[in-house]
Amino acid sequence: MAYNLVITERADEQTDSLAGYLVNDLKNTGAFLHLLNEIDSVYDRLEENPYQFPRSTDPYLNYKGYREALLSEMSYRIVFRIEMQTVYIVGIFHDLEDYVKKVEL
C-alpha cells in the first residue's frame, strides 16, 4: 500500500537552510549530498510503510501521534505524522535542537 508524502513548507525551508549551512558555511558538499541521500531514502521508506518508524519518544508529540525517522550515520531526525494515506513531513531537525518546541502542532 503506497502512502502520499506531503512535505510541509516549513520542512522544505529547513532542508534549504541545512543545504546553505553545509555547503556555504561549512564548505562541505559531501556532507550535504550524504544528507540529501539519507532524506530521500527515508522519504522512499515513508511512502512504502510509515509505520516502520517509531512514535516520538517525547510524551507530548507521542500523544499527538507524531513519529520520528532517524537518519542513519547522521545526527538528524525527520518528524512526521500520518493521516489516513498521507504522511506529513513537519520538520527535519538536528539532534542538538530542542525540536519539540519547533514542531508546529
Q: Could you explain the architecture of this structure?
A:
Helix content is 44%, strand content 24%. It has 105 residues and is α+β, with helices and mostly antiparallel strands. The chain has one domain (4-94): YaeB-like fold. A four-stranded mixed beta sheet has the order 1-4-3-2. It is globular, with a radius of gyration of 13 Å.
Rg of Cα set: 13 Å
- Mean pLDDT equals 91
The count of DSSP E runs of length 2 or more, i.e. the number of strands, is: 4
| Class by SSE composition | alpha+beta
CATH T-level topology: YaeB-like fold
Our estimate of the beta-strand percent is 15-25%
Shape label:
globular
Amino-to-carboxy terminus distance:
27 Å
CATH superfamily placement: RelE-like
Low-confidence stretches: none
Biggest pleated sheet: 4 strands, mixed
> Class, according to the CATH hierarchy?
Alpha Beta
CATH architecture: 2-Layer Sandwich
Could you outline the blueprint of secondary structure elements for this entry?
Elements: E1 4-7, H1 9-25, H2 29-48, H3 59-63, E2 67-70, E3 76-83, E4 86-94, H4 99-102
Parallel strand pairs: 1-4
Antiparallel strand pairs: 2-3, 3-4
Sum up the structure in keywords.
alpha+beta, 4-stranded mixed β-sheet, YaeB-like fold, globular, 105 residues
